[in-house]
Each structure stands twice: as structure tokens, then as C-alpha cells.
Design brief:
Elements (H helix, E strand, L loop, with lengths): L3 E3 L7 E5 L2 E7 L5 E7 L9 E5 L1 H4 E2 L2 E7 L6 E7 L2 E2 L4 E2 L22 H4 L5
């Protein structure tokens, strides 16, 4: 599948479906980079597409956003976010971690989740 990505909108937060595709918007004040991960389905262990959000086009203040043309409701997605890793300051960015959308309306793939692994650095 060939994807067409445009900058999208910084509002509303989360994934918003329209007749042409999906707008993704994530808030992070401290993030230095965001990747949008698109999965073939809920059982897929790795993303089918990784979309790097270039801050020159996909960031407005603290909002990271992109519009992906041609995808529909039900698309399985997540994020990888880079930024400072300074636990003393409450910053625990780990680009190896796959993150849920805090504004998402459903979660799939719980059987692939490992709480012990999630507590340690790395994938």
C-alpha cells in the first residue's frame, strides 16, 4: 500500500477519520521526535509502515500531527517518541518503546503486552 502523508491539523487530538483518510495529532511538550506506526492488523508484531513526523511540517508548538490519505477507521497504530531521558526531572523518553495514543478510543493486541518488559529500557 502506498501512503500519501500531508502535514495534517493540530486539532483535534487523537485519530480523526474523515472520508479521505485519518488525521493523527499527539501532544508532547518535551518530545524531540515522533514516529507514527501503522500496523497491518491487531496481531502484527511490527509496524507495516513507520512515518517519521518531520518537525518542520508536522509540528505546531507542542502538537505533532499528520494526515494519512487512504486509510480508514479501524487502522491499528501507535507511536514511538524521542526526547530527553532524565528520570530526576520526570522525563523518561525511550524511542524503543511502542506507545499507545493517550487520546485513543480502543486498544488491541493486549495478548502481546508484557508488563515486565515494559518496565525496563528497550523494546
Amino acid at each position: 500500500m502506498s501512503l500519501r502523508i500531508t502535514p495534517g491539523n493540530s486539532y483535534p487530538l487523537g485519530a480523526t477519520v474523515d472520508g479521505k483518510g485519518v488525521n493523527f495529532c499527539l501532544y508532547s511538550q518535551q518530545a524531540t521526535g515522533v514516529d507514527l506506526l501503522l500496523y497491518a492488523g491487531p496481531e502484527a508484531p511490527y509496524p507495516e509502515h513507520t512515518i517519521h513526523l518531520d518537525p518542520r511540517y508536522h509540528r505546531s508548538f507542542n502538537y505533532w500531527h499528520a494526515f494519512v490519505k487512504g486509510i480508514k477507521a479501524g487502522q491499528v497504530y501507535a507511536y514511538r517518541v524521542t526526547g530527553p531521558n532524565d528520570p530526576r526531572r520526570g522525563q523518561r523518553f525511550d524511542a524503543a518503546k511502542v506507545l499507545l495514543d493517550p487520546y485513543g478510543r480502543a486498544v488491541v493486541g493486549q495478548e502481546n503486552y508484557d508488563r515486565q518488559a515494559a518496565c525496563h529500557p528497550g523494546e
